Amino acid sequence: MDVHGIGMTSRRTRDRLIQRLREEGIRDERVLEAILHVPRHVFVDEALASRAYEDTALPIGHGQTISQPYIVALMTQALLAGGRLKKVLEVGTGSGYQTAVLAGMVDEIYSVERIEPLMKLARKRLREIGCRNVHIKLSDGSWGWKEHAPYDGIIVTAAPAAVPPALLEQLAPGGRLVIPVGGPTMQELLLVQQTDKGPVQERLELVNFVPLVRDSL
Ligand code: SAH
């Protein structure tokens, strides 16, 4: 596969995507820079690679999707707006694309995915593009990843009906949680900040994520 930027993955194709994200209101230059450089075509099936720089979600198998670049940018921007993050928890690794975009801007990422083949493929692809600060495990992320808590930032890329309490418990004081919350077809993207007075919630946008699935233990 072409990972070096000719044809469909050319600089011009990627520049067009960045232009579009700017038009849609993404302002954080670090986020735009990361999206320009992370090869999204590596995170989709070869048959879909020619569409990798369109601003759209694409299927990644097992009924799941790689998030739309605009949503990845919006969530990353919201997560980073409070300053540098050392430790981040991601729930729903999926393709690993959101993980890769974040990886260059934070110290360590702990990411959990409940579908084993997706977890393995994401791990392989992240290694291939040189992300060394990403740690992935197979599990139900509704429970977070306790061993490494607390986290300065938590990003959830599948939608529960309500914020899972374990995630709030694992969020450090001053930490930021970005999470879609709602029903199966539409959710509100929330930014929850952990303050002295408890969690404070802000609504960012209406979104459409796959559901956060709870595995019975
Ligand atoms: N950010 C990913 C989005 C993948 S879609 C990307 O851009 O590729 C959401 C992912 O969340 C799916 O892979 C799904 O299997 C996973 N998921 C759903 N419920 C989960 C849970 N309880 N714990 C961990 N992962 C979960």
UniProtKB/TrEMBL annotation:
Its main location: cytoplasm. It comes from the Bacteria. GO terms for cellular component: cytoplasm. Gene3D superfamilies: Vaccinia Virus protein VP39 (3.40.50.150). One of its GO terms (molecular function) is protein-L-isoaspartate (D-aspartate) O-methyltransferase activity. It is found in: Cytoplasm. Its EC number is 2.1.1.77. SUPFAM superfamilies: S-adenosyl-L-methionine-dependent methyltransferases. Keywords: Cytoplasm, Methyltransferase, S-adenosyl-L-methionine, Transferase. The active site is at residue 67. It catalyses: [protein]-L-isoaspartate + S-adenosyl-L-methionine = [protein]-L-isoaspartate alpha-methyl ester + S-adenosyl-L-homocysteine. GO terms for biological process: methylation; protein repair. PANTHER family: PROTEIN-L-ISOASPARTATE O-METHYLTRANSFERASE, PROTEIN-L-ISOASPARTATE(D-ASPARTATE) O-METHYLTRANSFERASE. Catalyzes the methyl esterification of L-isoaspartyl residues in peptides and proteins that result from spontaneous decomposition of normal L-aspartyl and L-asparaginyl residues. It plays a role in the repair and/or degradation of damaged proteins. Belongs to the methyltransferase superfamily. L-isoaspartyl/D-aspartyl protein methyltransferase family. This is Protein-L-isoaspartate O-methyltransferase.
